[in-house]
Amino acid sequence: MIGRRRFLKRFLILASFIAASISAFITLPSMLRRSERTIEEKIIALPKPPPISMSVEDAIQKRRSIREYKHPIDLIRLSQLLLNSFKKVGEGYGLLTAALNEVDVYLSVGEEKVVGVPAGVYLYLRDEHALKVHREGNYLQELSSAALNQPWVEEACFNIVLFANLREDSRLREGVVELPHLCAGVLGEKVYLAAVGLGLACVVIGAFYEDRVKAIFEVDSAKTPLYIISVGDLV
Predict the structure, then answer these.
(1) Model's pTM, two decimal places?
(2) Do residues 79 and 36 share a domain?
(3) How far is CA 130 from CA 9, 62, 107, 117, 196, in A?
(4) Domain extent at residue 66
(5) 137: which residues sit within 8 A by CB, 6+ positions away?
(6) pLDDT, mean of each 10-residue run, the chain (235 residues)
């Protein structure tokens, strides 16, 4: 009788273990899907911005490199700056058209420096006009250190970092070695003009340690940083 009870007890324990394992196996895919969905949903949709009222001629005359900032800045002006600087270009840029659209635009945002945007590293999604969370946290101090300790990188509200994918099959490698830098120059100038029109301040930085910048942004090994652009509100 005692042996029978032991057998039944062990049988029930084994059955419970098997049932729990089957349940976990069934629910695991759905848990993974929920986890993936949570990551994918970490996207900040940017508001549709009004047009910039300042003329291009006035913006050209007032364009300056400015290294002193106040913060925070509002989400509307961030949205205006990104859309006017980085929206996909049409055929007006000739041979640069396709290459310009391949440059990746990342942002490193400081703590409480942009209203509605937590500190973190973001990828700007051009087609959706939105920010996708890439890393959470404030990395401005690390980025400043990687940029030879230039203090305005840390003092800025956010830094735009342009990356080029230099794979052999990338348009940024076609024909002209300087093509990625030409694209960075064009996009950097658009940031300058948009910033002037929005009452913002910015400066383009070309001196930095590539490997350290790549480590902060955790990008693919084939991507190379071209420019850091520090942006903040006018003092």
Answers:
(1) 0.80
(2) no
(3) 58, 29, 12, 11, 22
(4) 44-233
(5) 119, 120, 121
(6) 51 45 39 38 91 94 96 97 94 84 96 97 97 97 98 98 79 64 94 97 97 96 94 97
CATH number for the domain that contains residue 107: 3.40.109.10
In the prediction, which pLDDT does 175 show? 54
Structure tokens at 207: 């001196």
